[in-house]
Amino acid sequence: MGVTTRSRPDVHTAAELIDESLDAGHVCSIVGRCTVAYDGRTQSTLPAGERLVVCKPDGTLLVHHAAGHKPVNWQPPGGTHDITLIDGELHLQSRRDAPDERVEIRFTDLRQVSAYALEEDHDRDVTGSEDDLRQRILEQPTLVEEGFQPRMTERETSAGPVDIYGVDANGTPVIVECKRRRVGPDAVGQLARYVAAAEREYTTKTVRGILIAPSITDRAERELTQHELKWVALDPIHSV
């Protein structure tokens, strides 16, 4: 498990570490004095106090104080986390669209910010590998999209071997990159390099790129759009 910690960070250092943590799909914890405001099905506020805030890559948000095992405020998986600096203070917003809910946390003092690259449990690692994900696609190509036909695995390009090379329903070449975990912009950049190399080397003007992963960060989604690439949500193993 990789851990990065900053004690008594300034707001710029804290914001940078939190952003990097969320983009990388890591768990992030923030300890400091803050206020908390919830706006959704009801409205509530917590006055300034010292709290532990945990942001998880699946969108979960937990706000704890010193006592008890239950969070004093929280958001379930499926939301997004955004960091902004306003008047020299760090603001964290966690938002869900269905239903429309927001938790706004304003830090007036930061004690510690940590990012954790947590590993999945051993059984999940063994049965949920990228090879498992690739095999799922080879056995059921329509998981990528209707009409997709895989032609080759580990096809070489100058940018490296691609996981799966195939064609879509229109005969357009498709590069499929498989990731077994939530990914950030690095995975998008990797796929974009494969597509660019394939367009140069496969003597075709158009090559599509599809990223396969259980989930992606907001920044990764924006970069996919910029590069005109596609994401398909898929786990390495089928949940029964």
TrEMBL record:
Keywords: Cytoplasm, DNA-binding, Endonuclease, Hydrolase, Nuclease. It comes from the Archaea. GO terms for molecular function: DNA binding; single-stranded DNA endodeoxyribonuclease activity. Residues 129-237 form the Endonuclease NucS C-terminal domain. It is an enzyme of class 3 (hydrolase). CDD domains: NucS-like. Residues 28-123 form the Endonuclease NucS N-terminal PH-like domain. The keyword Phosphoprotein does not apply. InterPro entries: Endonuclease_NucS (IPR002793), NucS_C (IPR048301), NucS_N (IPR048302), NucS_N_sf (IPR049173), tRNA_endonuc-like_dom_sf (IPR011856). Its EC number is 3.1.-.-. GO terms for cellular component: cytoplasm. It is found in: Cytoplasm. Gene3D superfamilies: 2.70.180.20, 3.40.1350.10. It holds the Pfam family NucS_C. Belongs to the NucS endonuclease family. Cleaves both 3' and 5' ssDNA extremities of branched DNA structures. This is Endonuclease NucS. It comes from Halocatena pleomorpha. The lineage of its organism: Archaea, Methanobacteriati, Methanobacteriota, Stenosarchaea group, Halobacteria. The gene is nucS.
